[in-house]
Design brief:
Number of domains: 1
Order of helices and strands: EHEHEHEHEH
Oligomer: single chain
Number of strands: 5
Distance between the termini: 13 Å
Shape: globular
Structural class: alpha/beta
CATH architecture: 3-Layer(aba) Sandwich
Strand content: 15-25%
CATH superfamily: Response regulator
CATH class: Alpha Beta
Radius of gyration: 14 Å
Largest sheet: 5 strands, parallel
Number of helices: 5
CATH topology: Rossmann fold
Length: about 130
């Protein structure tokens, strides 16, 4: 299995722990970066422009967070995307089952899939093997 750079942008500390453990078990060669809000995650992306090997292949992004939520992150990301040297697979990870959120996510080309928490280990495995 190839080593991947993975970012989780989520303010829920319990979910951060669960996600890291699931990833360690299902995709042990991954380098995982966890950020408590979209602003911190976006700052990491901007800094990774100087070192392309740190650009993540995958971002798991929560919608509802303080400081900068997932929607705001996606807006900022769209302006940055052309500067990136590789494509990033963005997965929205949320507890929201609101049809409006799902419809909004489906209209955003950067979003690969809308995943409802909790995410099973099987689902994480499928993400990495697509």
């Amino acid at each position: 299995m190839e080593k991947s750079v993975v970012c989780l942008i989520d303010d829920d500390e319990i979910y951060q722990y669960i996600f890291r453990r699931q990833l360690e078990l299902s995709h042990p060669l991954s380098q995982v970066h966890i950020f408590p809000n979209g602003k911190k995650g976006f700052e990491y992306l901007v800094s990774s422009l100087k070192n392309p090997s740190t650009i993540p292949e995958y971002i798991f992004l929560d919608i509802n967070m303080p400081i900068m939520d997932g929607w705001q992150f996606l807006e900022e990301f769209s302006a940055l995307e052309q500067k990136l040297t590789k494509r990033i697979n963005i997965y929205l990870v949320t507890s929201s089952i609101d049809e409006r959120d799902i419809a909004k996510a489906n209209k955003i080309e950067h979003v690969k899939e809308y995943l409802v928490k909790p995410i099973s280990e099987d689902k994480i495995l499928k993400v990495f093997h697509k």
